[in-house]
Write a structure and sequence with these properties.
Length: 359
Amino acid sequence: MSEGPGRTEREGELPAVSYQAVFEASPDGIIIVDEEGIIRDANPRSEELFGYSRDELVGSLVERLVPPEDREDHPAKREEFTRHPRIRGMGAGLDLRAIRKDGRRIPVEIGLRPVDTEEGRFVIAAIRDTSERKRLRRLGVGYLQIIEEERRRIARELHDDIAQCLAALLIRLRVLSRSDDPDTRDRLLAQMHDELTSAVEGVRRISRGLRPPALEDVGVEAAIRSHLRAFLQESPLKLELHIDPVEEVLPPDQQLVVYRVIQEAVSNAVRHARATGIEVEVRRVPHQVVVTVTDDGVGFDPEGTFLDGAGLGLVGMEERARLVGGTLQITSRPDRGTEVTLHIPLAGKHSPVPGASHG
């Protein structure tokens, strides 16, 4: 797009654009690396992408941006590319990761282009963060998996519990219709009564799993308290709970999301985090309701867990939040505990909270 020497800008043509302007404004990170693997220049997007300042990047080995597990092999690959240079398009079917200054790994696509100059051979690397793309793809696939898993669970319960109970009732009813012995009939009726009672309780259990009746009967605050009391009844965990009244500002679908996010976050803390304490807060603040579940457990890498396709519960919480116009943030580090924060903007109010993030 830049004009060669001696050319002038003509009326109606695009103005000349310098290399430096394109370099600075690029939406992708761009670093320039010499034959020794030293970073010679880095654009502003690279600073945002990796968390280093330009001064920290320039003059350092490019291997500082490579995860430790891949760092030992990288110089040989870099030298091979320098000896046999070629243009490598963005993506190129490779599953690549880079590492930020804060230690967080990010999935990336990297396009490479060698350039020969009077000063030697350089490689221009264009780097694109694919976290959001992978997150959205996992969100779609993961949510379908959640739906299928829920369907399998319900089908299994219906088959193993309700269907077998009804089949037994049919058999006893057939036997009852053919028996004239009063004792046999009394025994069969008692058995049928017990089996019907069991079937009714099974239907109620499945119904409660699909949508807790307490939400409609006593409201979200009482439903949360009741669930946590029952769930933690046999647990030694210490629970701190604070819930502001929110029924009058949240419609039923948003109340259900609040309940489900707390349910999933507390379940994860008990079953996976090896926590000794959990704090649950539901706060009504200006323009939004904020739900926070904090534990002091072992923590994990939410970004890596999500992008690797694990943790369908995380996928479910984020999707539930999105469907009601909310956002979900998961903050966790290994051995540092976990904090799950749900923001739900109140009707007609715009939430100042940015989009959902992990890390």
